[in-house]
Amino acid sequence: MLGKRTLWQNCLLALALGVVLFFCLFPFIQILSTSLKHQFDWGNPSLIPIKLNLEAYQELLGLGEREEVPIPETVKRLLDNPLLTEEAKEKILSRYRSTKDVFPFPRFFLNTFLLSVTAAGLSLLLAVFGAYAFSRLRFKGRSVIRRSILFVYMVGGVLLMVPLYQMSVKVGLAGTVWGSLFSLVLIYIIQTLPVSLYMLGNYFRTIPFALEEAAATDGCSRIQALFLIILPLSVPMLITVFVYCFMIAWNEFLFAFVFLKQYHDFHTLPLALQSLFVSKNAIWDRIMAASMLTLSPVILCFVFIMRNLTRGLTEGGVKE
Amino acid sequence: MASLRLKNIHKRFGSVEVLHDINLEIKEGEFVVLVGPSGCGKSTTLRLIAGLEDITEGEVIINHNVVNLLEPQHRNIAMVFQNYALYPHKNVRENIIFGLKMAKVSRDIMDARLEKVAKMLELQDFLDRKPAQLSGGQRQRVAMGRAIVRDADVFLFDEPLSNLDAKLRHQMRSEIKRIHRAYQTTTLYVTHDQVEAMTMGDRIVVMKEGVIEQQGTPMEIYLKPSNTFVATFIGSPSMNLMDAKLFPEHVEIEGQRIHFKEKIQRPDFLLPKEGLPIKLGIRPDFFLDENFASRGGSLAKINNAKIDLIEPLGFDKELDVQVGPQSLKVRLDLRTTAKEGDTINLCFDMERAHFFDIKTDKNLFIHPAIRPQP
Fold first, then answer.
1. Contact yes or no for A316 and B130 at CB 8 A
2. pTM, two decimal places
3. Strand B77-80 relative to strand B154-158, pairing
4. CB-CB under 8 Å, A213 with B139
5. Mean pLDDT of all residues in chain B?
6. A22 in a domain, yes or no?
C-alpha cells in the first residue's frame, strides 16, 4: 500500500529520531543533572545524582537559610576597644555580614525580564502597524521595502557592536545607566522587528480583507478595524511574535555585555552567568542551577507558542 | 430611507476602464437589482457606493449629498457581502450589534433591535454561537441581521445568495423580499442570477462590460429587451434569435413567410424592397403546438420544425427543433405528443416577437435611430 512503512523501516525511523532528539536534549539534561549534584558527585559520569542537592536552587532563589559567618575572637576583642568609633565598628562588622559574594539571581532575573518585556512589547507594537501597512496599504515601494527588511540579518551583531556603541556614546546615551538601557532596548527592537514584521505581515494577509470592509460599513475607521477585528483574530500570532522578541532579548549577551558591563546592578542574566563563570563563586551546581533557571522562561515560552500556534481564529467568518 | 443617485460614474483600475459613464437613480424605498454576467462591473458599482473603492470620475449622491469623499463609515450604508464576512471571533449577538456599538446606540435600543431582528430572521436560538458553528444559511441570515439592525439609509447586497444551495436560495429570496417590505429601505441588490433579478426587484438594471444596457421593471426587461444581450441574458431558457428578413407585410424565415395579421405588429418605418436582414427574437415559452393553440387563426406560424430532442420537465416539455439550418429552443405544454424526429408546426404571437438590427444588435422597435433612413 502507498506510504505504508514496514516494521523495519519504522524501527529505523524511531532510532534516527531518538539519536537526533538525544543529541539536542543532552546538553539540557547535563545542565539539569549537574545542578542537582553535590560537589563529591561532579566527577560521576552518571546523569542521575547519587544524592539530590537542591541547595544551589535554594540559594539562588533566596529560599535557603543564610549562613552566619562567625566573627573571630580577635576581631571581637578589637571591637571591645572603647576608643573605636561606632562608624569604625560598623565598618568592621559589615565585612562579616557582606552579601557581595552571593549571586543576586532574583535581581538579575528581574532586570532581564523588564528589559525583555519592554523590548518585546515595543517591537510588537511597531510590528503591528508596520505589518498592517505592508499587508493592507498600497504605497510606492511597498514590496521593495517589505523584501529588503530582512537584509538587516545579513550583518552580524559583532560587526555592528562597535559602531552602535560609538553612536550611543556620541549622542550621550552610553554615559548613563538609563541611556545604556534605552540603547539596548532600541537595539533589541531593531534586531527583532524584521522577523516580527515578516511573521505578522504574512499572518495579516491570511485574514480576509472582506472583514475589514464589513467593519468599515459597520462604522469602523481603519484603526478601529485594526484593533477591534484584525488584532483579536491575530492573537495567536501576536503571542508568538511577542514570545519570539522576548526570547531574543532574554538570551542576548553581546550588546548587553558592551552596554551594561560597568553597571553591575543592571546586569542581565546572560551577562551575570558569564560573570558567575569567572567569579570565585564558580561552583558547578550554582552555575548549572542558574543556567537552568535562566532557561526556564524560554522553555515555558516555547510550550506557550506550541499551544497557541495550533489555534485558528478566522474559521467560519468568510465563505472561501 | 434615502434616495441614491449615480451620476456619470467612471472607474478605472490603472489603464483599464471597468465602468463607463454609469447613470442610475434609485428612489426612496425602491428595490433595484443590478444584474449582469461576471466581470460586468456590478460589484464594483456597489463598492463605489459603499466607499470601498475610489471613484475615478462622477458623483455618488445619497440623499442629495455627494458622498465621494466620505469614508464608508460615514455613509450610513449597510452591506451584505457575498462571502458573509462575519467576525469569526464574535458570536452572533456581537456580530449583529457591532454596528450599533460603533454608532454608540444606547443599550436599551440595542437590545430591542437585536430582539426584533433575531426574531424576524429566526436567530434567537443561535445568538451565543460563533459563525463557525452555523450553517451557510444561518450565516447568511446573520450577515443580513447585521445589516438590517442598523437602520441604514441604503442596503447594499453583493450576491448574498450565491453561496447557498437552490432550496435555501429560494427561501432566502422570499426572506429578503419580506425584510424589504417590512423596512422599506432603499436597496441595491447585485446578482448574476436572472431569476433572482426577475423575482426580487422593483426595477432591474442590466449591465454588460461596465455599461448599463437597459433598466426597467422586470416585465419591461422581459417583454421589451432593448438589445440581443438583454434579450438572451434575461429569461431561462434564453430567447431564440433567428436570422430573418423583415418586409412591410411579413417576416421571412428560411423561405417561410410569416404575415403580420394585426396592424400593431407591423413595422411603421420604411423598409428596403429586398427586405431588411434582422435577428428575430422569440422566447421559448411563447411558442405553442399548433394542435393545442386556441387562437390558431390569429397567430403566426412556423411550419415543419424538425424535433431533435425532447426534455420532459414535468409541467412542460423543452424541445430542440430545427428550422432549416437554424436551431430553436421551444417550451411546449405536456399535451404535445410529437416524438423526436417528427416535424411540428409552431405558433407564436407576433406581438411578442422582437426585431433586432443585425449590425447594432438593438431592438428596432425601441431604438428609432437605427431604423433604415429614407
1. yes
2. 0.80
3. parallel
4. no
5. 90
6. yes
Q: Say yes or no for a CB contact (<8 Å) between A221 and B132.
A: no
Please answer whether residues A182 and A118 qualify as being in contact, where contact means their C-beta atoms are separated by less than 8 angstroms.
no
Q: How confident is the model at residue A166 (pLDDT cuts 50, 70, 90)?
A: very high
Question: Which residues is B12 bridged to in the sheet?
Answer: B17
Distance from CA of B133 to the nearest CA of A (A): 8
Residues A126 and A231 in one domain: yes
Cβ contact, residue pair B89, A232, below 8 Å: yes
Pull the grid cell for residue A19. Answer: 539519536
Q: Which amino acid is at B211?
A: V
Query: What amino acid is encoded at A187 in this protein?
Result: I
The string of DSSP codes covering A225-293 is: HIIIIIHHHTHHHHHHHHHHHHHHHHH--HHHHHHHTT-GGG--HHHHHHHHHHSTT--HHHHHHHHHH
In this structure, how many other beta carbons lie within 10 angstroms of the beta carbon of residue B90? Answer: 18
pLDDT in tens, A98-124: 555 567 888 889 999 999 999 999 999
Candidates A278, A256, A238; CA nearest to A191 is A256
Is A85 contained in some domain?
A: no
The parent domain of residue A232 ranges over 105-309
Average pLDDT over residues B358-374: 82
Q: Which residues of A touch B88 (CB under 8 A)?
A: 211, 233, 313-318
CATH number belonging to domain B4-232? 3.40.50.300
* Residue contact B102–A224, C-beta within 8 A: yes
- Phi, then psi, of A87 in degrees rounded to 5: -60, -45
- Could you tell me the pLDDT band of residue A281, with boundaries at 50, 70 and 90? low
Q: Which residues pair with B282 in a beta bridge?
A: B240
Cis-peptide, bond into residue B248, ω within 30° of zero: no
> How far apart, in Å, are the Cα atoms of A300 and each of A121, A234, A243, A270?
18, 21, 10, 18
What is the dihedral angle through the alpha carbons of B189, B193, B198, B203, rounded to the nearest 10 degrees? 30
DSSP character string of B157-214: EESTTTTS-HHHHHHHHHHHHHHHHHH--EEEEEES-HHHHHHH-SEEEEEETTEEEE
Whether B228 contacts B241, CB under 8 Å: yes
Kindly give the pairing relationship between strand B31-35 and strand B186-191: parallel
Domain count, chain A: 2
Is residue A37 domain-shared with residue A164, that is, in the same domain? no
**CA atoms of A260 and A271, how far apart (whole Å):** 9
**Nearest C-alpha of chain A: how many angstroms from B369?**
44
Can you say whether residue B161 is alpha, beta or left, with left for phi > 0 and alpha for psi between -120 and 50 degrees? alpha
Q: How far apart are CA A113 and CA A109, in angstroms?
A: 6
Q: Per residue in B244-275, pLDDT tens?
A: 999 888 899 988 998 887 766 677 777 888 88
Gap from A138 CA to chain B (nearest CA, Å):
13
pLDDT band at A240 (very low <50, low <70, confident <90, very high): confident
A164 and A281 together in one domain? yes
Predicted confidence (pLDDT) at residue A63 exceeds the cutoff of 80: no
Mutate to test the interface with A, among B13, B83, B150, B156 (most CBs of A within 10 A): B83
CATH number of the structural domain spanning residue A190: 1.10.3720.10
Residue B369: per-residue pLDDT: 77
Q: What confidence tens digit (pLDDT) does each residue in B149-186 have?
A: 988 999 999 998 888 888 888 888 888 898 899 889 99
Mutate to test the interface with B, among A137, A207, A212, A218 (most CBs of B within 10 A): A218
CATH superfamily assigned to domain B235-370: Nucleic acid-binding proteins (2.40.50.140)
Domains of chain B: which residue ranges?
Answer: 4-232, 235-370
Least confident of A72-81, A102-111, B54-63: A72-81
